[in-house]
Amino acid sequence: MDDGTRNPSLAKAFRIAYTLGLFICVAWPLALQLMLGTAIRAGSAPPEGVVQQLGYTFTGLTFAAAIFVTWRWGRVREGFRALPEALRPGKVIRETILYAALFELSSLYGLMYYAMGGPGAERYARSFIALTTVMFFVFVPRFHAWSEAAQEEQQP
């Protein structure tokens, strides 16, 4: 297991990216959860069927983001070892921030759902916001995964 001593630039890039990701996907959704219902007010509820269909769409988009990140990480991992060592830290930062941004969309969906669905949609909106954090911790690769990707043998 590499603790960053073999490749300190990769470890530093990961720490920077993961810290930004934590802010985007943990601190900001937590702030949104605290503001929901106080600083962020619900709109008037449109017909129930419209809000429900919108919720289904947001759920599908949220799962699509998770599927895309899983697929993309597989592709990145395959080619990471072949990437010149000087370019690897930048790749780690870009990918981690991209994944965090895609997961942050779930919080945006929650806010939109709350604004459109009114107070009755609050628990669903909070679920969308909470999913941001859950998906970040489940799907964003840790340093160990990046380190292994840098060391893996290329499969023919």
For the secondary structure, the number of strands is 0
What share of the residues does DSSP label as strand, in percent?
Answer: under 5%
- What's the pLDDT, averaged over the residues? 90
Main β-sheet description: none
Number of helices: 5
Distance between the termini: 24 Å
- Globally, the shape reads elongated
Alpha-carbon Rg, integer: 18 Å
Short description:
The protein is an all-alpha fold. The protein has 5 helices and no strands.
Protein model, in words:
The model has no long low-confidence stretch (mean pLDDT 90). Helix content is 76%, strand content 0%. The chain is elongated and about 55 Å long. It is built from 5 helices and no strands. The chain is mostly helical and 156 residues long.
Task: Name some characteristics of this structure.
single chain; 156 residues; mainly alpha
How is the topology of this model organized?
Elements: H1 8-35, H2 48-80, H3 88-117, H4 122-139, H5 143-151
